Amino acid sequence: MTVIRPAGVALLMTGDELMRGDTVDSNSAHIAQALTERGVVVREKTTVGDDRDLLLETIARLAKDHDVLIINGGLGPTSDDLTSEVVAQLANTPLKEHPDARSHVEAWCQRLGVTPNESNLKQAKVPFGATLIDNPTGSAMGFSTDIYRCRVITTPGVPRELKAMMASVLALTSERITTQNAHTRRLQTFGIGESTIQQLLNDSELPWPPSVNLGFRAGMPQLELKLTVNNEDDLPQQQHCFEQLNALFGDHILGEGDTTLASALQQTLRAQGKTVTAAESCTGGLIASMITREPGSSAIFNAGYVTYANASKRDTLGVSQEDLDKHGAVSEPVVRQMLAGALERSGADIGIAVSGIAGPSGGTDEKPVGTVWLAWGSKDAMQSHCVVIPGSRDLFQNLVAAAGLDLMRRQLLALPAQPHYFTRKTQ
Amino acid sequence: MTVIRPAGVALLMTGDELMRGDTVDSNSAHIAQALTERGVVVREKTTVGDDRDLLLETIARLAKDHDVLIINGGLGPTSDDLTSEVVAQLANTPLKEHPDARSHVEAWCQRLGVTPNESNLKQAKVPFGATLIDNPTGSAMGFSTDIYRCRVITTPGVPRELKAMMASVLALTSERITTQNAHTRRLQTFGIGESTIQQLLNDSELPWPPSVNLGFRAGMPQLELKLTVNNEDDLPQQQHCFEQLNALFGDHILGEGDTTLASALQQTLRAQGKTVTAAESCTGGLIASMITREPGSSAIFNAGYVTYANASKRDTLGVSQEDLDKHGAVSEPVVRQMLAGALERSGADIGIAVSGIAGPSGGTDEKPVGTVWLAWGSKDAMQSHCVVIPGSRDLFQNLVAAAGLDLMRRQLLALPAQPHYFTRKTQ
Predict the structure, then answer these.
(1) What is the pLDDT of residue B425?
(2) One fold for both B9-174 and B261-423?
(3) Which DSSP category does A418 fall into?
(4) Which of B82, B68, B84 lies closest to B32 in space, CA to CA?
(5) Which of A276, B22, B269, B353 is the most buried (most CB within 10 A)?
(6) How far apart (Å, rounded) are the C-alpha atoms in residues B329 and A51?
(7) CA nearest B76 in A: which residue?
(8) Which residue, A194, A200, A84, is CA-closest to A142?
């Protein structure tokens, strides 16, 4: 008879602060990411507070169903910290002071110039027979022991300490679970949504090899695509899929890895030996800020202009008062003059100008909140367009700034001037 | 015989991206915090991927053990999004298109100028008989239905959409669980850390009433303090504690609720009928962007100058070329001239100028990466100071921008000119 049992890795995060929402848990993402890079996807993650009965019940359940259970938190010195005690109970073994853990605590206290007290020494107690895991940056050592046939690995909740212990955690995990190095290519895209990408792939009716996993990660404002294969032999398939995506919507792909709109723009500008400027009304400095957030931006950016008031559009960028009066600040002539003024003042080769109604007030029937005029390009090749982006002020500013960077990238690379996001409601 | 059954609220977070660690889950903290403020602490939180069997098993288990189960994620348009389908199956009811949900999807698509496709319309299907939850900022409506005797509430995974739906989620929760209004006062502070606050409180030796809970929530760059009492009778105690905090470090308190550095500054400027400007080098537009992120900023902000290159400091703001050559861009004479130029050009009453080395390159022995000169104030009351903020480019830019806003607030309110964060390494 073959017994089929559930397998894989579970995570248990503990701490009252997580249940109250006082702390955003980044530790579990860190553990999950490290495992995923080795081809292991966490099956279940559960979070409970510092409650003995609930910890007993939850650890028993997770240990029954998994090969490996990684517990984070509850190894501290206070009476709330119950992990060692509960694991010992479930492992049917006494909680005992471990001589190496005691030396570790004593050495730690000595570094801090304090005498170990009872609370500190509590951290030296682990389930009898457990394997210790060194903690180079904190007083609480982790440990590993078995409950049922599950390997239970405990780690401290301080992010820095957890990170320093991850290599040991992965080594202990790989003794029970087959791990491998997954091969992932991450592509950064802008201006195209997950559902449109799925639709384009379906419509293309191109065969998609089952060995290549396509994942999405929604950022703001970018969308990341991940092409993952678990086997080196499948790398040509991965390359094939990459080319397929590139053929379908290559102009929306900014680059690989951690490429941002601003870093893609910077790279293109550097390659062409050009500089950029921005004349901003409704984005209020956000475009310049995105450009200069990237290291090395001084090579491609000299000056930006936040011309929020009409007088400043006129005085700083030379926009005609007559056009401001006649067409309003949110108009094609005004953004084109803003761009011309910024290009001239800064001496930049290419630029972006935006003027719009970020809201929540200031909208009219003719120009509702979310209306924005953009002008971009060089002195001799200026383009302009109006879009309406409904939603919050924050979303509006972020999308307008992102589109501004993208439109310059498109012009520099001679990509289609009408990106996907211009097929939305435009004027 | 009395059947004792477990009770309370459970959360279920879904999505492969959470299991792979691609996304740090902030939604569950948001939900937990909102519940905690109403006296309800989440009992268990479980996270699983987009896996039908595991979702069935997990939702069944959590529904059996709790009065309310809040599910987040899996309401999107793609085939990975399984929440509605799985909940319908467990609720023993068919998945049907809801006319109101269909109208919602259609209206949403119309606003975006697209025709609803099959993927979009999938979002109109909910378990038959479920109560819809309006989603004012997205296409996916949530819904509420019963599984066993548990109220199951579903919400979308996009943080902005979840936030806009929380009031409805809380109302639906309170129909099954006794909630109370804990009385919380949230204070926003800048420039002082949690451990310093604790230390100041300890040193003050003032009695702290046990009925008032003091909580901290680290934001970037602000720190939020929460004073919570569970009983209306304790409101005077809460007020007493508030006054105590105010006496100890009131100049670091920006305001209550969601006050930001920029909104506190805007409020002060409005009250005094003044306007502000910024001349930015190393922050590259971030200060102007923070000011204009706040609604209503046009009342207090007319223009900002991103003078990244030396030539632009000279041409736009009138900084002397001689001083640039002699002292370098990161120097006291240069930031003071930048400020003077920005005040004159914009006509603003008060302003901030910053010039520093954001890194990662560009540092010298004399001026290491992280060195920044700030000048702030009005034409007749100009102050300047140099600080060194080591760390990443991102952290540097954010802290310099935040300090810039705070220094202007301090001058306007005639608060101590040397805030706590200047006691760090300064020049």
Answers:
(1) 39
(2) no
(3) S
(4) B68
(5) B353
(6) 57
(7) A195
(8) A84
Q: Which long-range contacts (CB under 8 A, 24 or more apart) does B226-233 make?
A: B226/B184, B226/B185, B226/B186, B226/B187, B227/B184, B227/B185, B227/B187, B228/B37, B228/B182, B228/B183, B228/B184, B228/B185, B229/B182, B229/B183, B230/B39, B230/B180, B230/B182, B230/B183, B231/B183, B232/B183
CA A347 to chain centre: 35
Return the amino acid letter for B269. L
Facing residue for A32 by CB, picked from B21, B35, B286: B21
The closest alpha carbon to A20, from B282, B33, B173, belongs to: B33
Confirm if A216 and B81 have CB atoms less than 8 A apart.
Answer: no
Assign residue B240 a region: left if phi > 0, alpha if psi is -120 to 50, beta otherwise? alpha
Interface test with B, best of A282, A289, A399, A418 (most B CBs within 10 A): A289
Domain B261-423 has CATH 3.90.950.20: yes
User: Closest partner residue to A293 among B292, B359, B394, by Cβ?
Assistant: B394
Per residue in A2-23, pLDDT tens?
A: 444 557 999 999 998 899 888 8
Residue B110 in 3-state DSSP?
A: helix
8 A C-beta contact, residue A318 and residue A337: yes
CATH architecture, range B183-256: 2-Layer Sandwich (3.30)
**Beta carbons of A345 and B315 less than 8 Å apart:** yes
Q: Could you tell me if A40 and A177 are in contact, meaning their C-beta atoms sit under 8 angstroms apart?
A: yes
pLDDT in tens, A118-136: 888 999 999 999 999 999 9
**Cα–Cα distance, A358 to A368 (Å, whole number):** 10
Cβ contacts of B307 on chain A, cutoff 8 Å: 303
Report CA B75 to chain centroid distance, whole Å: 24
Question: Does residue A9 come out as left (phi exceeding 0), alpha (psi in the -120 to 50 range) or beta?
Answer: beta
Nearest CA in chain B to A28: B21
What H or E segment, with its residue span, contains residue A232? Answer: none
Sign of CA dihedral A317, A321, A323, A327: positive
Question: Given an 8 Å threshold on Cβ–Cβ distance, is A21 in contact with B43?
Answer: no
Domain boundaries of chain A, sorted by first residue: 9-174, 183-256, 261-422
Q: Taking CB atoms and an 8 Å cut-off, how many pairs form between chains A and B?
A: 267
| Rounded CA separation B84/B123 (Å) | 9
What b/e sequence results for B383-407 when a residue is b if at least 16 CB atoms lie within 10 Å of its CB, and e otherwise?
ebbbbbbeeebeebbbbbbbbbbbb
Q: Least CA distance to A226: which residue of chain B?
A: B22
User: Tokens 């390494």 correspond to what residue?
Assistant: B425
Instruction: Enter the pTM of the model.
Output: 0.81
Give B246-280 pLDDT, tens digit per residue. Answer: 999 999 999 999 999 999 999 999 999 999 999 99
- Residue B28 identity (one-letter amino acid): S
Please report, for residues A83, A190, A251, A299, A385, the alpha-carbon distance to residue A419 in angstroms, rounded to integers and kept in the order given: 54, 10, 8, 27, 12
Q: Between B35, B117, B295, which is nearest A360 by CB?
A: B295
Q: Which residue has the higher pLDDT, A342 or A228?
A: A342
- Interface ipTM above 0.85: no
Sort out which chain B residues have CB atoms less than 8 A from A49's CB and list them: 41, 43
Q: Tokens 């517990």 sit at which residue?
A: A71
DSSP A105: H
Q: How many angstroms separate the CA atoms of A267 and A262, rounded?
A: 9
For residue A65, give Cα distances in angstroms to A62, A123, A172, A222: 5, 28, 18, 37
CA torsion, ordered B63, B69, B75, B79, to nearest 10 deg: -30
**In contact, A355 and A279? CB cutoff 8 Å:** no
Q: Which of B23, B305, B308 sits opposite A29 (nearest CB)?
A: B23
The CATH architecture assigned to A261-422 reads: Alpha-Beta Complex (3.90)
Are A133 and A143 within 8 A, CB to CB? yes
Q: Which residues of B touch A199 (CB under 8 A)?
A: 117, 119
